[in-house]
Amino acid sequence: METEKIILGVDPGTMVMGYGLISQKGKSLSIIRMGVLKLNKLENQAMKLKTIFERMLEIVEEYKPDEMAIEAPFYGKNVQSMLKLGRAQGVAMAAALYRDIPIFEYAPRTIKQTITGNGNASKEQVSKMLQAMLKFEEMPKYFDATDALAAAVCHHLDRGKDVNYTKKKQHKSAASSWAKFVEQNPDRLSKNP
What we know:
By secondary structure, the chain is an alpha/beta fold. The chain is 45% helix and 21% strand. Strands 3-2-1-4-5-6 form a six-stranded mixed β-sheet.
C-alpha cells in the first residue's frame, strides 16, 4: 500500500504570505490547496506576526503535513524589509516546529531552477509550469500562492538536499550526490544526447 506524504510550502511575506499543500503518493503528485494570508490591513508588525503564527498553526493542524518547505528570504538592499521578512519566516517556521514538522529551506533561485530549469525564471513562468505539472484550472490572484506551491514541489523533487532545520546536515561528495540523484530520478534525465 502506498503511503501519502503531505508537504506544506510557504512563501514568507509581511504583506501577503503564500502557502501551498501537495500530496505525494508514490510517484503521483497532486495539489491539496493553495492560498494566501493577507496581512496588509493589520496595524503593526506584532499583529502580523501573531496572525502568521495562528494561521500557520491552523493550517498545520488541519492538514497535518509531514514536512515544510519554505523559501529563504532573498538579500535585498533594504535592511528593514529583510528583518521583517526574516521575522515572518521565523514565525511560520515556529508554527511547524511547534508540531514537530521537519523544515527545509530553499533559496528562490533553487526553487525556480528546480521547477522550470531556469534559476532566473519569472513568477509567471513558475506558475505556468506548476499549472502544467499539477493540472489546476484557475491561476490564483497572487503569485505568493504559486511561489509557496513551488517551494513544496521543489522539496518533493529535490528531496530535502537544501537546509534542514530539524536534523544534522550530512555532507556527501558531489559525485555521490549526483549518482544518487540519477538513481532516484531516471525520468528527469534527457534521453537525447
